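Example 3.2
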Amino acid sequence: LEEERQNLERTGNVLREMKRIESGVKMFEKQIAKLAKQKVTVPAEITANVEKVKAIIADIKSGKTENAEDIHDAMQVLDQDRGQLEMMARWPQTVKEMDREMKNLSREMKRAKTIVARLSKKGMDLSEVYAGFDSAVNKMEETRDAAVAKMQAGESEDAFETVQNDFFGQMEDTWQSHKIIMTMSNFGQFNTDFTRGIAQAQRQIKALERKKIDTAGLKDLLAQAKAKGAEVKEMFKTKPIDPDSIMPVLEELENLRQEFDQTMAELTGEEEEMPWEKGPQQFQSIKVSPNLQNLIPRKETMQQPPMQQSKNEMVGESNPQPLP
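Structure, written as tokens:
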């Protein structure tokens, strides 16, 4: 009777645990359905694993326990899928961020076109610089569309990689031609921004020094930037201004700024967050009782029988010599 009571109690505990897991799986399915409405294609292997978990639970609830231990591996895979689904749930906000950047770039393209036309009347030809800006913006638009197409095709990892490396990863380079046009249009603004940037860099270096962090590399980059900035200032004093001479120096200055920012990020560990790294968690982990292992134990791997020792291997303190 005691054994029967314990079996009934164990069965009740197993069914309660399956009900808990089943509830969590239903929440998973609701979130996956929400992704479908947002035109986010969930990989087939993830939906297949959800169905596998549901089938295992159904079997256990109906008393078919031959493969009950499979619930452990299936739940582990589902939890791994959760990380991928969490990123995919943030795809809409990623697309919004890309669209926001493209809108800003398009607006500045129109502005830059007007400025280039005005400077052309003054004998300053920046048509090649503008063409470079226009080409870079068009490439960003193509990259955005390619990433969206990959996501719709179910290639979520490739989509996020494209966004990170080829969209946001190229953003500073895309703006470089625009910055040159703005500088050639308004040197006074360049001078103000450059002075402010140098002061900020000095503050950042001092902050790192207080933390006993080696700033030799940053100081070297800052010194190079100061020299290039001074060079640009002298060039603008020479009339008429020669764009072909100034633009390469401005490009070098921008490259130094990017290298300084990258080095700062490496030293502080503070890198810019991607859009899918922001916001609250949307896919909650399915709670599984620590007692599940006791309720449904994994089958122990059959141990190989110990190999018989040969006579020559049976040597020890009590048998110092091999047996004849």
